[in-house]
């Protein structure tokens, strides 16, 4: 029982309501319900992409309700690029890609604050190209070998 990872309780705990208010502010959503809908759909989609220790670490940083949404999803066999992630979310929700991208940006801005820079860097290393921009980070390109 004591060998299980525990969240760092020295950091202030964010409640689900506080997270929803942050997402509502970031996304300029008219209601709390609309913000909650965005949180649940985006975190569900993210739960299909993030695996391993990064998934566990992210779940520990989130409020319980958000962590359950993230971890209730079975990880996908194939990782989607950042654009593929947005497109898949749009297809699943029936929203336009522009609305899906807006929702992703609003939710992942809140997730970025909760995860912190170290965990976020580990998550981004695990995911294919295109996610850094979704998390509001610079997308650094990997050097490509020069053909001989």
Radius of gyration: 16 Å
State the low-pLDDT regions, or none. none
Overall strand count:
0
User: Percent of residues in helical segments?
Assistant: 55-70%
The fraction of residues assigned to DSSP E strands is under 5%
Question: Whole-number average pLDDT?
Answer: 90
Which structural category do the helix and sheet elements fall into?
Answer: mainly alpha
Distance between the termini: 56 Å
- Shape call: globular
The helix tally amounts to 7
Major β-sheet, in short?
none
| Helix-strand pattern | HHHHHHH
Give an overview of the whole structure:
Helix 1 crosses helix 6. It is globular and about 55 Å long. The mean pLDDT is 90. By secondary structure, it is mainly alpha-helical. The chain contains seven helices and no strands.
Task: Briefly characterize the structure.
With 148 residues, the chain is mainly α.
List the helices and strands and how they pair.
Blueprint: H1 16-27, H2 32-47, H3 52-61, H4 64-71, H5 82-93, H6 97-126, H7 131-134
Main attributes of the structure:
148 residues, mainly alpha, 62% helix, globular, 7 helices, 0% strand
